[in-house]
Amino acid sequence: DRGAYPYYMLKEIDEQPAVLHRIQETYLQDSGIPVLDQEMLNAMAKADRIYIVGAGTSYHAGLVGQTLFEKLAQVPTQAVLASEFAYTDPILSKHPFFIFLTQSGETADSRQVLVRVNEEWQAPSLTITNVENSTLYREASYQLLLQAGPEIAVASTKAYTAQIAVEAVVAKALGTRKQVPAADAFDLQHELSLAANAIQAIVDDKAQIKTVAHKDLATTRNAFYIGRGVDYFVALEAALKLKEISYIQAEGFASGELKHGTIALIEDQTPVIALITQARTASHTRGNIQEVQSRGAQVLTIVSENLAKTSDQLVIPSISELLMPLISVVPAQLLAYYASLERGYNVDQPRNLAKSVTVE
Ligand code: M6R
Fold first, then answer.
1. Whose C-alpha lies nearest to ligand 1, atom 7?
2. Protein residue with least CA distance to atom 8, ligand 1
3. I need a labelling partner for 189 at 20 to 30 A (CA). Which of 20, 146, 263, 278 fits?
4. Residue 290 CA to ligand 1 centre (angstroms)
């Protein structure tokens, strides 16, 4: 029931702080130590490489997971597109472990990979899903639930943030199990509380984002999101949100790649939304902003507080850089929502799309 909300998508965006709290309660002890199946962690600890399989938004959450597993558990990790991986002959590592990210648990492309994992590669697997007893839940060796509550809008929002939070729990648990110092030092309990508060502050201030959507996205034909590292991964997700419900031709780019081709697309007034949450690359992305600005782009910045300058528009609270995607994606979700509304579309049921994609 969407109560007083005009669309489920807005309700689901607003629910994200509560979802993070539920994940904390379910998977972390008060002391912050993750409570996960030891047998699963033992199997993961033997892996020399983790493959994270997903489609669409779930693939984008997998890209963020790559960074989480490499930093916190020091395991080489690769996010792969289910629809590609299912039909290639990858040279797998000796001891692979597969993580399936799927909100619905029914995505046919992802299932196709799981069938190969079970029959051909005979490797251990974990499905992280929102739907208990779904196909991918049942067929994997281990399973964890997203605790996000039903997601009704076709555009996935709270499932994405829940996927990242659960990946962080697993990465922290695995890192602790392997005695990786970065995992011990990472106060996930605290960071998730900070993330929930930060998201709450952003959703409480929606009016600001609505104004920006009205100004920059009401009539534009195209739009670009740019960023580096995990900001690039969020740029991909942000662009997908905009495409699928506002029908604006939107692309997410690694900002360093602009001058290798994409910048040719920038015209007077083209909206370019830059994500800056990583200290190491902030000045590089700022350089890219200048390049597009000098070609007439209408630039909007989404920047974490600790890296912000007075000229930045959407300043978001800063927490651990590893978990900034939980926060920086929220203004992008809201921008897509308001752009869709501005253009008069049915936000929850975009054309040509189904909530769960059960054909390959
Ligand atoms: O249920 P799944 O997470 O496996 O679904 C994967 C994609 O179909 C899904 O994330 C899709 O990209 C969303 N509509 C994006 O908002």
1. 56
2. 56
3. 278
4. 34
Mutational test site, ligand 1, from 83, 103, 242, 358, max ligand atoms within 8 Å of CB = 103
Q: Which residues contact 76 (CB under 8 A, 6 or more apart)?
A: 48, 49, 50, 70, 93
| ipTM greater than cut 0.85 | yes
Tell the burial category of 272 from Cβ atoms under 10 Å away from its Cβ (0-12, 13-18, 19+): buried
Q: In terms of Cα–Cα distance, which of 106, 209, 102 is closest to 160?
A: 102
The finding on whether 81 has its CB within 6 A of some atom of ligand 1 is no
Angle between helices 56-73 and 230-246 (to 10 degrees): 170
3-class state of residue 220 by DSSP: coil
Atom index in ligand 1 nearest the CA of residue 107 equals 4
Q: What is the 3-state secondary structure (H, E, C) of 138-196?
A: HHCCEEEECCCCCCCCCCCCHHHHHHHHHHHHHHHHHHHHCCCHHHHHCCHHHHHHHHH
Query: What's the pLDDT tens digit per position in 208-259?
Result: 999 999 999 999 999 999 999 999 999 999 999 999 999 999 999 999 999 9
- Alpha-carbon distance of 58 to 16, in angstroms, equals 16
Mean pLDDT of the 80-85 span: 97
pLDDT (0 to 100) of residue 357: 80
Q: Taking the CA atoms of the chain, what radius of gyration do you get in angstroms?
A: 20
Q: Which residue(s) pair with 34 in the sheet? A: 28
Q: Is the pLDDT of residue 352 over 90?
A: no
Average pLDDT, the chain: 96
pLDDT at residue 100, as a whole number: 98
CA distances from 314 to 14, 176, 303 (A): 18, 35, 6
127, exposed or middle or buried, with CB in 10 Å at 0-12, 13-18, 19+?
buried
3-state DSSP call for residue 302?
Answer: strand
pLDDT of residue 354: 80
pTM given for the model: 0.97
